[in-house]
Design brief:
With 350 residues, this protein is of the alpha+beta class. It contains 8 helices and 15 strands.
Length: 350
């Protein structure tokens, strides 16, 4: 008999053990390790719940949720984001995943929408949530640029923001995303709180570029390795070829080395990324961020983007590794769902 309850601090090690049994991906299979604190990822949210499934005294599965107020189809909607679903391989196909989902959603008081984010080709999870009445409303793209060479330095002055820049940066982000579904308008207090709460982030990591006295582009560098250590159990053919090429190049010229199977690697995400005006200035900011990430010993710099985002063609020239994620949603009011034209996804939700 499996029972479900809220997790406590005493469950930390058991949850870390379950996570190590649940690698993710197909062509590129990744193993995540967030020790010593399983709850660190959830602490990025101002509210969250973590649940565990037990058989006897053994934790065999987990799921987490956070409540968000999102702009969906033109109205502010209280939504529950369901994430971090894991079931120990020895206990799958026993209905534990379905029970965890149902319990987590039932506990989300007054939420009008539930949604999940699933990596492409994760067919078991897709089959499960479709069975539970979720529908695919949109896809987004994770572009990960391999940092195997140093970019040329930029010609414009690019700097970290100060407290005095926050009003302009918040206004820029709101103007860039206000019409996208799943975006909540920021306040200055919310922005400051978010930058400080997320481990591996902070104001000093938000870069801006100005034209005149106006901030026209901003991008924050979040060190994902501060929450998760990531290693590859299986690597895609393209990355294997690139890795072999770099080993050859390193004989003649020192370049960054891509990690081998089983070797941890560092990823930085770009978040709070917004811009107006000239794309050449945006390109300067992107190159600056690539240089910073490379200087900090990262292997990849990742962008979370809507497929229709105007920055996509610019980033394509850096030959990124491209992974599609599906957003599945379910109305908790028995209403029909529409598919967004464009969507905002926070990198912290991955």
């Amino acid at each position: 008999m499996v029972s479900i309850r809220r997790a406590s601090d005493e469950d930390n090690q058991a949850l870390l053990d379950v996570e190590k049994m649940c690698p993710q991906g197909t062509g590129l299979v990744l193993l995540f390790d967030r020790s010593p604190d399983f709850f660190l990822r959830s602490k990025a949210y101002d509210n969250y719940s973590v649940y565990v499934a037990e058989e006897g005294a053994k934790i065999v599965g987990t799921i987490s949720t956070t409540i968000k107020e999102l702009n969906i189809d033109g109205r502010r909607t209280k939504s529950v984001y369901v994430y971090d679903m894991r079931v120990h391989p020895d206990y799958r196909r026993k209905g534990i995943a379905s029970s965890l989902h149902q319990h987590a959603i039932a506990e989300a008081d007054d939420a009008r929408l539930a949604y999940v984010i699933i990596m492409e080709e994760n067919y078991p999870s897709i089959a499960l949530i479709r069975k539970m009445g979720f529908q695919n409303i949109h896809d987004f793209i994770l572009l990960s640029i391999p940092l195997y060479k140093r970019q040329s330095r930029t010609t414009h002055e690019i700097r970290s923001i100060t407290a005095d820049d926050v009003p302009q940066v918040v206004s820029l982000i709101n103007d860039c995303y206000r019409d996208r579904d799943f975006f909540s308008l920021l306040t200055e207090t919310c922005f400051l709180d978010k930058t400080e709460r997320l481990r591996g982030y902070g104001l000093q990591n938000v870069q801006v570029i100005e034209e005149g006295n106006r901030i026209v582009a901003c991008a924050g560098l979040w060190d994902y390795s501060e929450i998760f250590r990531v290693s590859a159990l299986r690597v895609s053919a393209r990355l294997r070829v690139l890795g072999s090429f770099l080993k050859f190049v390193n004989i003649f010229k020192k370049t960054a080395r891509l990690p081998s199977v089983g070797e941890p690697f560092r990823v930085m995400y770009v978040r709070d990324f917004a811009f107006i005006g000239k794309m050449d200035l945006v390109d300067e900011l992107v190159r600056h961020c690539l240089c910073l990430a490379n200087d900090r010993g990262c292997n990849f710099l990742s962008f979370v983007l809507d497929p229709a985002d105007p920055i996509m063609p610019l980033l394509a020239k850096y030959k990124p590794v491209r992974v599609t994620y599906h957003v599945y949603a379910k109305s908790l009011e028995q209403k029909a769902l529409s598919s967004p034209t464009m969507m905002y996804i926070d990198a912290a939700d991955l």
